[in-house]
Amino acid sequence: MSRVLVVGAGLTGGACASLLRGAALGRVEVWDKARGAGGRMSTSRGTRDAACTADLGAQYITFEADRSEPRRSFYEELLSHGILQQLTAPIEGMVVKKGSCNYVAPQGISSVVKYYLKQSGADVFYEQHVTHISLRDGKWEVSRKTGPPELFDIVILTMPVPQILSLQGDIVNIINESQKQQLESVSYSSRYALGLFYEAGTRIDVPWAAQYLTNNPCIRFISIDNKKRNIESPEIGPSVVVHTTVTFGSEYLDSDPTEVQQLILSYLERIVPSLPKPSSIKCQKWRYSQVTKAVPNSLGQMILHTQPLLVCGGDGFTHSNFDGCIDSAMSLAEVVKSHL
Ligand SMILES: Cc1cc2nc3c(=O)[nH]c(=O)nc-3n(C[C@H](O)[C@H](O)[C@H](O)COP(=O)(O)OP(=O)(O)OC[C@H]3O[C@@H](n4cnc5c(N)ncnc54)[C@H](O)[C@@H]3O)c2cc1C
């Protein structure tokens, strides 16, 4: 029986762990450096009221008419469990391709990842920041920022590619020159997201649930997040999400976060002057937001070492959406199963 580690409790890691359920493996563990599940499918809570939530990363899951058919069962499963619901709220400026369908997660987009983690039966540990991966007695010795190193038979990496390349230990020399070149060619856009959390009973009087802006130098997208997710309750305060443009994200990537927050708020006020004062605000920097160039000709994963198995995947090996992560997760799970 093999001890397996999945690094990353995002969609790829969560879905991969759930696809490994039932395989003849020993214990499967998932480690993530964050305090909770979701990765870039994250749902944040207001500091004053934990019931007030906002999706700061991914907003919708889109079934694409021409591409998503092979993964239809994944959509059907999430819909049948109430994790996903059809987007019905009005979104200004949204382009919907014929035959495509957008879904939202009423409980927050991280509920999709949490669903898979629960299905997996894996032991999930947070605040486990992996720093080194080295070979020891035919196994992988995995070190983290806090806690002793641990040994695993199989390690699956699902974080953004630059974070894979920043790992230390034997992995540095295990990644061969050609793989290194391919991994270094992967690029991501960067952007900021702002979450504004309000007290219960606050009214936000705008006719839309979300809108895309095309001419603003700072803001690309604004949503009344609870309205977008079909949740309007007198007991839970509304929330607003703002995504900046990619140009703004790159320009202010290493600026002081407080200044960036103020700047985004000043643009927001000009666009929606009626917006009330929030009870708390979260400013999230997405250094690795969406993949702009994936690993060329990738099968959804890359095997870095076979005996013991070390394999990496994630949206950097496909593309940045639900289908891309599911494809990578399926491909990762296949590799692991074929090694047993
Ligand atoms: C602003 C924004 C909007 C988006 N909009 C959409 C959308 O509307 N629809 C859509 O389908 N997709 C959207 N996406 C893309 C989608 O969110 C991603 O493609 C997807 O979440 C990637 O999942 P992943 O599991 O591959 O990676 P991630 O979600 O990045 O998961 C990787 C995990 O690894 C962890 N990690 C990293 N390094 C370490 C380490 N050293 N040790 C331990 N853990 C580590 C991270 O904490 C993270 O949880 C959006 C993304 C962003 C940022």
Annotation, overall tally of beta strands: 22
Low-confidence stretches: none
Ligands bound, unique: flavin-adenine dinucleotide
Helical residues, percent: 25-40%
What is the straight-line distance between the termini? 9 Å
Rg calculated over all Cα atoms: 20 Å
How much of the polypeptide forms β-strand, as a percent range? 25-35%
Tertiary shape: globular
Specify the biggest β-sheet. Answer: 6 strands, mixed
Tally of separate helices: 10
The averaged pLDDT comes out at: 96
Strand order of the largest sheet: 9-2-1-13-22-21
Q: What structural class is derived from the secondary structure elements?
A: alpha+beta
Report on the structure:
The chain is built from 10 helices and 22 strands. With about 350 residues, the protein is α+β, with helices and mostly antiparallel strands. The model has no long low-confidence stretch (mean pLDDT about 95). The protein has helices at about 10-20, 70-80, 110-120, 160-165, 170-175, 175-185, 225-230, 245-250, 255-270, 320-340; strands at about 5, 30, 45, 55, 60-65, 85, 90, 100-105, 125, 130-135, 140-145, 150, 155, 185-190, 190-195, 210, 220-225, 240-245, 280-285, 290-295, 300-305, 310-315. The strands form 6 sheets. The protein has a 6-stranded mixed β-sheet. Strands 7-16-17-18-15-19 form a 6-stranded mixed β-sheet. Strands 5-8-6 form a 3-stranded antiparallel β-sheet, covered by helices on one side. Helix 1 packs parallel to helix 3 (about 110-120) and helix 1 (about 10-20) packs across helix 10 (about 320-340). The structure holds flavin-adenine dinucleotide.
